[in-house]
């Protein structure tokens, strides 16, 4: 089978197509013939060598955290009638950029009827991350929520879910094509952080959900009222933002132990939101499997609105 391998740390060109033996499912596992591979922004950062303190990856490795496809074989203890079932599955922190994967059955989820498999993969990472970040945050009719990276894959969850809870949502993104998408997504106010002074004249907010970090994240956090909540869940800019000069706000990072403990429940809840149309992710690019480097390059140029997938 073909895999996409990170041969060394570097730019998108280090993504290399390799041949590897098909995986055999162990007891309690299934083998999936992969049709789609989800790409998350973190894939591009780990490929470059960023984040070793959090994710100590060493080349060569096969990136990728989630796939959609069909169960082709089962290991001992798994009913044989699962063969042929369309599913999505989490592959852990690596291993997803492959034509076939073997994963534990507890990391496999039935594909909702009628749902685009590319959209379904959004439950695996984006939905879980969004729901886990929103869980400790007080949302209601009088809540003002600022979402950075609102045109990104996770932003497509935060904006409708905060709106559904009754909050007033300020969606921030960079550049006209992304701010237009945020407006279409339903944000009450759209901010362009590519513009100088983008936070000027913005009234204080109760919640900031920041996946961008850096100067943008810090500028967003500065808008928090005393007692406000900061969900600092990502560093798309290359560094985390946070609120280093604030001791009067509540900061929520990513507790990986809590997320892992609740992952199945969160994923099933995310699939329900997709199946009922509450959340409607935008698939910004579908790229042939062997052209993964092109997909990474577009993400790094900030050219993509929404989610990216590889088509096997």
TrEMBL record:
GO terms for molecular function: oxidoreductase activity. Residues 10-310 form the Enoyl reductase (ER) domain. SUPFAM superfamilies: GroES-like, NAD(P)-binding Rossmann-fold domains. This is NADPH2:quinone reductase. It comes from Jatrophihabitans endophyticus. The lineage of its organism: Bacteria, Bacillati, Actinomycetota, Actinomycetes, Jatrophihabitantales.
